Amino acid sequence: MGDTTFSHEARARGPRLIALAGPFQCGKTTLLEAILAHAGAIPKQGSVVDGASVGDASPEARAHRMSVEANVATVDYMGDRYTFIDLPGSVEFAHDAKNVLPAVDAAIVVCEADERKIPALQLTLRQLEELGVPHLLFLNKIDAASIDMRSALSILQPASRTPLLLRQIPIWNNGVAVGFIDLALERAYVYREHAPSEVIEIPQGEAALEKEARYSMLERLADYDDALMEELISDIEPPRDQVFDDLTKELRAGLVAPVFIGSAERGAGVTRLLKALRHEAPGVAETRARLGIAESGPPLARILRTIHTSHGGKLSVARVLRGAIADGQTVVSAHGEDRVSGLSRLMGASISKTNDARDGDVVALGRLEHAHTGDAVVADGKADGARLVTRAPIPDPVHALALAVKDRKDEMRLAAAMAKLVEEDPSLVFVHDQEMSQIKLYGQGEMHLRVALERLQSRFGVAVDVSKPTVAYRETIRHKVTVRGRHKKQSGGHGQFGDVVLEVAPRGRGEGFAFAERVHGGAVPKQYFSSVEAGCQDAMTHGPLGFPVVDVEAVLTDGSYHTVDSSDMAFRTAARIGMSEALGKAEPILLEPILAVDIFVPNDAMSRATGLVSGRRGQIMGFGPREGWEGWDKLEALIPEAEMDNLIVELRSATAGAGFFQARFDHLAEVVGKQARDIVAAHAGQPARLAG
Predict the structure, then answer these.
(1) Which of 605, 608, 635 is nearest to 623 (CA)?
(2) I want to staple 602 with a disulfide (CB 3.0 to 4.6 A). Which of 81, 119, 311, 384 is the partner?
(3) 3-state SS of 469-492?
């Protein structure tokens, strides 16, 4: 069937960027494959399962059969250029979407009428709604569904604050969807395997259902169009141009989210989806307006993703939001100035050189060493212009591993390789914990870190062993004691002499260390007070249980000195000796960090979430509805840091991948009994005595 323009509303011109978003395993990558095949960009539709798709081309994506990074493919369809960016569905890789979505013109949300996936769908839709990105839903796997559309919408609508607008209804034959009726066009189509659908007469048995569904669609449109409302009240059939104008305006304004149906695996429904994008989706001009970017000004682009290639160096995948960018042009970001070294277009893992990047295009800019994911770059402008686009905030990590290189010579290579991986994926956090003497990698979940380590070995040749990160235990004392610390040494020439009397006592939890002096008669000269304080702090770095000491007070009450042999170092040493003895006598106790954890789960998972907290020595502090999130609850708890390992894994297992938490340090609490003895013994390699 030829393409006919029904709408008077201006069709967007120029290249467009469309995101494919939605929950894990709903078929986004398969839909991308079907779109590429329908647009003639690939000879035939490949299979994700067989590892033959344009998207998910990385070894890690194919090994795990899931999207682990954003995949970009640019095609020409009916004279227009489209770039589709396939976003990971797993919440562990969701940060990829946060810097992409602000710059897209529209999004296709691929979903299923599956109640188990509604919380994950809600996360996707909420992000699009908050960004103001126009979006439509593609209800996938319709050929395998056995649910009527009224029921499907009742399942999907709670996930969306934007009203869902049904655009198509299926044609059923013996319980199988064999085609669809387009409610705007009032035409029926039957699916053909991996080919455009064929127009047929609306089946007699479907006519009444089509009239009812079309009227419901028009009623929803009339909520925002008084003229259409008057026509419906007067039983006047609205002109088709008016209907398409309303569909276009209300999609672009974010007033409705149209729902299309099809089967990505069979390529069914893809042609109508593409034509709806062609006529109704906004373009880069509307995206500029949404982002508050002026129409005139120097060329401006946003970095959507950073890739470090093995041979071509660093590539910055960018959406040109204004003007045109040329090879060799100087661009400025908030972090510095670079010269573009090569322009490329992407088709999954394939990269091809191009000569131009015009308004609306998505290209890879070569060797922008100062620009990072989420940055804006301005050509022929100043750094101030690069701040027009804000970077997405990096989510707090929820999972951690301690790393140790298998080969000592890889220690320097590890830091350099991780710096590149973190630049590609800012939701990774790589730190060298000096106190714990551990290298730690933090991220958004078990799979997130697993993929990072696989890339570390396959791309950079660095193999590591992993372990559970060490908990930062502390110790304090239970009682007040008074001790004398004395340091005397004579070895020719000037000797060393320092003598102090210390009164050491516990302080309230979280009050830290305090030092004071109550010396009378100059028993210890004032110039040595700071050295005595430093010596006390030296002793606190490693207490009798083997951990740093906190929340104690040391008071210098007496001592003696030698006019020749006393020195700052002598008094510091004497204070360290005295403080060490005091800490051992004052009944040391072990403290562990307690985290305040806010857990967010769908309503039906609350009992499982409370069970997870209770099973981790946690204390539930409160719970209730999550504000502004229908169908979600928030659970507030205090959980020992030592019990946080794999919490996110179990939480996501209990919530179909949608649950998450935020944690922050709250306080230190005493550990008692066998648990405390085991911790101290494991740390020291031998039993230790604890108070109580």
Answers:
(1) 635
(2) 119
(3) CCCCCEEEECCCEEEEEEEEECCC
Q: Which of 326-335, 528-537, 606-615 has the lowest mean pLDDT?
A: 326-335
| Residue environment code for 90-126, b if the CB has 16+ CB neighbours within 10 A, otherwise e | bbbbbbbbbbbbbbbbbbbbbbbbbeebbbbbbbbbe
Q: Is 607 within 8 Å of 488 (Cβ atoms)?
A: no
Distance CA 442, CA 190 (A): 50
pLDDT digits (tens, 9 = 90+) for 566-594: 999 999 999 999 999 999 999 999 999 99
Look at residue 382 in the predicted model and tell me its pLDDT.
Answer: 65
Pairwise CA distance, residues 41 & 73, whole Å:
9
HSE-CB for 578 with a 13 A CA cutoff? 31
Do 365 and 327 touch, CB atoms closer than 8 A? no
Can you tell me the distance from the alpha carbon of 507 to that of 511, in angstroms, rounded to the nearest whole number? 6
Phi, psi of 272 (to 5 degrees): -65, -35
| Pairing of β 474-477 and β 588-602 | antiparallel
CB of 320 closer than 8 Å to CB of 301: yes
Residue 84, C-beta contacts closer than 8 angstroms, at least 6 positions apart: 18, 19, 20, 32, 35, 36, 72, 73, 74, 75
DSSP letters, 35-103, are HHHHTTSSSS---TTTT--SSS-SHHHHHHTS--S-EEEEEEETTEEEEEEE---SGGGTHHHHHHGGG
**How far apart, in whole angstroms, are the C-alpha atoms of residue 190 and residue 268?**
9
408 SS3 class: helix
Segments in 380-410 forming alpha helices (H): none
